[in-house]
Amino acid sequence: MAIAFAHLYDLVGRWAAETPERTALEFGEARWTWRELDERIRRSAGALRAVGAQRGDRVAFLEKNHPACLETTFGAALCGAVNAVVNFRLSPGEVADVVNDSRAKMLFVGAELLDVVEQIRDRLETVERVVIVGGDADEYESWLAGAEPIEVAAVGEPDDCCLQLYTSGTTGLPKGAMLTHRGIGAHTSAVAEEFAMTAESVSVVAMPLFHVGGICYAFVSLLAGARTLLVREPIPDAIFDLVERERATHGFFVPALFAAFMQTPERAGEALSGMECLVYGASPMPLPLLERCLELLPVDFHQVYGMTEMAGVISALGPQEHRDPERRDLLASAGRAIRDAEVKVVDAVTLAEVPVGEIGELWIRSPQVMAGYWGKPEETALVLEPDGWYRTGDVGYLDGDGYLFIRDRVKDMIISGGENIYAVEVERVAIEHPAVADVAVIGIPDDRWGEAVKAIVVPAEGAEVDADNLIAFCRARLAHYKCPTSVDLVDALPRNTTGKVLKRELRDPHWAGRERLV
């Protein structure tokens, strides 16, 4: 499915011309054909143009999953403008920071989140108009209905930004990654092929649309011409019912949602076993959980590794590798680079490419790459090399068959006694202890070794975690220098809105008043 297109709108325009009366999108009880979706998008573009939206302007969208987010994204792109989708889980102050950073003149806000905007209205520096989406006070539908649909050609060039997504901010303030028509086109085409998605597929979009795994996965579904089922919130029972009722074939869920599915394995088996393709990513899948899923569900599993800056997926582990008895080690792999993507491993100091099997920083080159961070040329220059390579900040290695193994973030690596320790490697062992439900491994100050390894553990329900026993468990499976020397117990690990553990919050109390050496 190597379909080239020059503009984001082509994702919808193609099917509106070829199969206008087929169902394109469903949301709750509402359904739209490709013809209807296309008209709503062109009305959105007309309404934006009527209020002066120009090429390069930003609008902002703050709401839980709603079709209006997709319509606004495509409508803005038709005008040459850009939708900056805001994380609805942020605090009011953080929402203000993101909206101000985007310089958006219009803000679309869900009725459920209107209170957030009211709290920060006097802090919004550029917003001239707020449009309420949904609820009793809905303004969006009348705003759309009162507009004339655009009939002219789309505005913009393939390398123009057409979507602005904000990084998750685990190591600092979110940055607006500028995704282009060309980059999104390269991603959607390659990933639709990877997942064998076609116009006969029925795809569940449950990830939030502010996340690259939500909106860019929706683009994959649209490019394939599949029937797209947009889920407002990822509630397991509701997803089970939806999958059964609509006979869904494809779905992308984060590991935390698979863990929730496995709380009711019989129900999960009934609902999900008929699907063709289940995709997981955005955070590591604990091996015990993955093995339970593989045993329960006779479905093609795909693991994906990617990032906002690459419009989503950059490598994938396919269904055959998931069930290969000769290569069980591949369950810890992020798979191989997708079509048109290159991966190399670089020494973080010399910047020289390292040999196969040696650990270093992962660099990626692909037509999917972002145009840069909005308004941040210095930060863009830190990650984008002049020859097109993107520095991921992730540490890992490639094996002789081209499989990628992620070990850690560069900033999360622990250096103890001169040895590099990758927290993910320790976490993968510790999570297999029967008393451990969740775990994060960090480095804390140590006067002798520089850093010592600490495990922060959420006990399994009804279990007691004995620190000495857990340390001994790790030492039986890892080199001693990699193992925790101390264990803290907590009720829950701090996570950002996409499920990634906020290790900075765990480390900071231990490093207060000290200058970290790494």
CATH-scheme architecture of the largest domain: 3-Layer(aba) Sandwich
Query: How many β-strand runs?
Result: 25
Assigned CATH superfamily of the largest domain: ANL, N-terminal domain
Low-confidence stretches: none
What is the CATH class of the largest domain?
Alpha Beta
Biggest sheet layout:
9 strands, mixed
Strand content: 25-35%
Number of domains: 3
Topology:
Blueprint: H1 10-18, E1 23-27, E2 30-33, H2 34-50, E3 58-62, H3 67-79, E4 82-86, H4 92-102, E5 106-110, H5 114-120, E6 129-133, H6 140-145, E7 161-166, E8 176-180, H7 181-194, E9 202-205, H8 212-224, E10 227-230, H9 236-246, E11 250-253, H10 255-261, H11 265-272, E12 277-281, H12 287-296, E13 300-307, E14 312-317, H13 319-322, E15 336-337, E16 342-346, E17 360-365, E18 372-373, H14 377-383, E19 390-398, E20 404-409, E21 414-416, E22 419-421, H15 423-430, E23 436-446, E24 450-459, H16 467-475, E25 486-489, H17 503-511
Parallel strand pairs: 1-10, 3-4, 3-5, 4-7, 5-6, 9-10, 9-11, 11-12, 12-13, 24-25
Antiparallel strand pairs: 1-2, 7-8, 8-18, 13-14, 14-15, 16-17, 17-19, 19-20, 21-22, 23-24
